[in-house]
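Expect chain and fold; thus:
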Amino acid sequence: MAQVYLEPSDLSPAQRARVLAALNSASSAPALAAAIEIPGELDIGVRLAQRLLDARDALGGRFGTLQQVRAVRLIGPERFTEICAAVLGLDPRRWITRLGDFTDRQAQLEGRLARLAALADGMPAQREGARVELSISPQPLWLGQALDVRVSCVDASGRPLPDRRLTVTTSNGALEAAFGYAVSRAAGLTVRTGADGSARLTLRLAPPHGLTAEQQAVLEGALDLFDPQADSAVDLKPALAALAQRYSAERAGTLRAALDLYARQYRDVFLDRLNAGGAGVGFALETSVLRVDLHAAEGNASLAHAVAVAHHRNWVGAWLDALGAHVADQATLEAAFAGAGQRGSSGQRLVDDLVAEAQVFVARLPGLAAQWVAQQRLDGAMQRYLARETAQLDLPTRQALHAQLAGAAAQITPEHRGTLAAVAQARAELAARIDQVGDVSGVLAQEMRGLHGDVLARAEDVSRTAAAVTQQAAQVQADRAAVSADRQHVEARSAQFDVQYATFTTQYNDFSTRYDGFVLDYDSFRADYGRFTADYDRFRADGAALDARLSAAEADIGGLRTHTSALDGQVSALGTSAARLDRRIATLDAQRTDLSRELGRLRTDVDTIRR
């Protein structure tokens, strides 16, 4: 019914008294339902009226406040409004006749009120001179290391401002803030200042697929060995070489996986470039712009803000160069190519031998980054071999060899090793069979040359099949990368679960400790309650004995009262006797007085006679 509802505080004292009087004077549920009748509306009815009467009886027969009426079950804001409107003679339907105009006006007023509130919120900050200070350390630091971010809020006098709401954002990387045992990670976080007026966060520039907690810890431990004062890769060469060696020799693969993620992120920048090498002459800087805003108690208006710029030095390019040098030192690739050429082969056989040497070179390397730098080194080694070792061949053979070897070099990757080996084996078997029939007659040789053409055609078919297999292998590699990304996502989720589980374990241990304390307190309470029960039983026994003694005393007092009553009677009788005795004494005194007078007269007469 009503769309504008009344609350107990909306009524004046006189109106509240009228409503309470009407409810407290109702004699029955039908009478109360009839009194609260609004034409054309579904009002409270007999059942709700009876519920009101039951609640009134439970309160001792009357309602003391309208809050008690409002708290009755099923008497919501609409029914409460109808009760008040019916008792006071109001019509709620008139309140919403122009509700649309009222709503528009209300929206305008709320907008003005919000602007005034924003100005009011800003005025205390201006009066107190609130300011924000943003500090970051250390600077600069290596990519992958954690940057400490500290925000301080003080007033004009330099005093800290506790429990203030702050929003911290970064243009690059992710911020981390600890809330108890939970850690929040995002490009923008809302935090509150502590008792000292400060808040602390951490900035990390992790690769897009993220790192597990273990990978992050191992990587930061490795980066701690880098000299923070190094200006170029030349100054950091021993540390970079040691990291490349550790990458190749690690058994667990944790550090290798972390380095591969960074290598994948910057592959286009440092590997797929025209001129290899020299990436670490000067370290590139990864720049992050941090901004902090101090907000009012309500709303998102910024009362004060601060901005800082953080720099992470990018070591990935310099390390890839060091890894390439380490890979080249571990394998004599150019010597292997020269040995293949000296074995006297030519044409397709030479291509197969060179590809086989390249396969051995790539197969020995663990990790994605090592495979990528090996591919880069392999391309350079083949180009140098073609430039130096094929000058004695005729031009058509040299051109054909260049084309075949360049195409084969482009396909040498770890996932293509099996396919290339199968093609090389097929070609070797075909060549062996052709050599076995070299002594046949000319006619058969001519026929064999025709068969040789067919075999070459089939070899081309095998090559096309190999290309299709290569394409499928590329798709498998892409699927493998996607699966690896999913695995890393699962690992990240697992790490998050581990953190949450550790939080739960800590909270559960805290609960167990508190529960053990509760059990001890409860046992102590039971012991105290047992002592109280024993004391109470003794008190009851003493009370019973006291009651018996009181009963005996009351009986003795009753007998005493009886004796006292008899004594009172005797005292009364004695008083009566004493009164009679007093009267008799008085009579005797009177008679004695008369006798004394008579005796006096007698004496006078005797004296007279004697004279």
Notes: The longest helix spans residues 442-610. Confidence is low (pLDDT under 50) at residues 96-100, 414-424, 433-443. The chain has 17 helices and ten strands.
